[in-house]
Amino acid sequence: MNERKQIGLAVIGCGVVGRMRSTFAKDYPGIGWIGLADINEDLGKKLKDDIEADYFTSDFAELIARPEVDAVIVATSTWSHVDPILAAVERKLPMLIEKPLATDAVQSAMVLKAIEDAGVDAVVGYTQRFRRRFLVVKERIQTGHIGEATAVVVRAFMNQMAPTGELRLTQDRRHLTPMVVSGTHSLDMAMWMLGDQAKPVSVYAKSTDKIMGAMGTKDATFGVFTMEDGTIFSMNICWALPKVWPGAVYGLEIGVVGDKGVIDIEDTHRDVIIASELNQGPAYRPDGLKIEANRNVDFLTSFPPGDLHDGELWGPMREETNSWFGRIYLGKETPHATAAEGHRNLVLTMAMDLSAKTGREIQLPIDPVELMKGLA
Ligand SMILES: NC(=O)c1ccc[n+]([C@@H]2O[C@H](COP(=O)([O-])OP(=O)(O)OC[C@H]3O[C@@H](n4cnc5c(N)ncnc54)[C@H](O)[C@@H]3O)[C@@H](O)[C@H]2O)c1
Fold first, then answer.
1. Which of 37, 64, 208, 350 has its CA at 20 to 30 Å from residue 96's CA atom?
2. 13 CB under 6 A from ligand 1?
């Protein structure tokens, strides 16, 4: 017989991702109470009604302080994770945090230290780790099927609809670069696949901003990391593809060459295509976003969290969220990124931005204070 106490869950941020994750919580038998918080009351109250949550407040601190709360999901906007994380750390609550821990490497280091000092089990939402195709690749590399890796190449292409949807919500876009906001997912994938070999000692990168510069961000950053053992990792992202590009959100290619084999991953979503006289619209639809492009051809399944069927999301974010519920309710081991890996990923993405800004190869590891000084 299962005699575990059901969990009380707080979800901070009721936007696209908060809605998805709290909808899974509603169906998870080990969760008995759900509280929601969002500064946008209309959005939060609508979610409360839709999933019949137990509580809503516009003040995340009030929610986290409630006695019913045993665990927290931080799904606020990319630039507003720090305060809810610190409030949950104060109560030593386990957390699932959307990336990044912070958009400033010094703050991210401070947040990581608080998490580690308190001994809190905090993981970061690198959702793509939960796809079957990447789990099998990780397993093959980990068990030596391609020998030692020598060279890794990643190419991420993104439709400019996604950054447009996100950046319109803040004027402070200094650190909302393609690498910090989105490239971090592919960088995490490569670092995760490399496992113990992922010890970067330097990075050199270049950026361009011809298309997205007017929005206060960049179009693309291409860089090369060198690892301690000489392995090279080429990380490339462009998030300025035209809105009519059939890949609605994220398309990826990854190659991992080892001394005994190679793994080549085609993840551009050209295997399921719709062509129609009707406009397919965007796949990522945050509150209030209007996209004026006609999109008649669409590579389906390019929205990283998954896809809707009958109002339910199916895909990696379901696997990831339910797996985290198993982690906190059943004590299961899971492949989630740790807070330390989340911090590492932020520092590496920002080091690419620093290299592109200065034209210098950056030696790693780099002190967060020096990194932020260089980016200022
Ligand atoms: N894992 C993935 O695949 C994936 C996909 C998309 C977004 N994300 C990440 O998820 C997070 C949320 O993204 P989204 O697409 O849901 O954005 P969104 O804009 O739809 O939702 C964010 C919500 O947070 C709320 N918010 C902001 N500051 C707050 C505060 N201090 N207190 C309470 N509420 C606050 C906003 O009002 C908004 O409703 C971001 O960090 C983003 O990077 C992850």
1. 350
2. yes
Name the average pLDDT for the chain: 96
Is residue 112 lining ligand 1, measured as CB closer than 6 Å?
A: no
Is 40 near ligand 1, meaning CB less than 6 Å away? yes
DSSP class per residue in 141-177: HHTTTT-SEEEEEEEEEEETHHHHHHHTT-S--TT--
Average pLDDT for 2-6: 84
- Which residue ranges form the domains of the chain, and what is each CATH number? 7-127+319-337 (3.40.50.720), 128-304 (3.30.360.10)
- How high is the pLDDT of residue 197? 95
Confidence class for position 166, pLDDT limits 50, 70, 90 = confident
Site to substitute for ligand 1 among 24, 77, 126, 346, most atoms within 8 A of C-beta: 77
Judge if the beta carbon of residue 315 lies within 6 A of ligand 1: no
Region 88-116: mean pLDDT is 98
**Is the pLDDT at 171 greater than 80, yes or no?**
no
- Rounded Cα distance between 145 and 283, Å, is 36
Query: 123 CB under 6 A from ligand 1?
Result: no
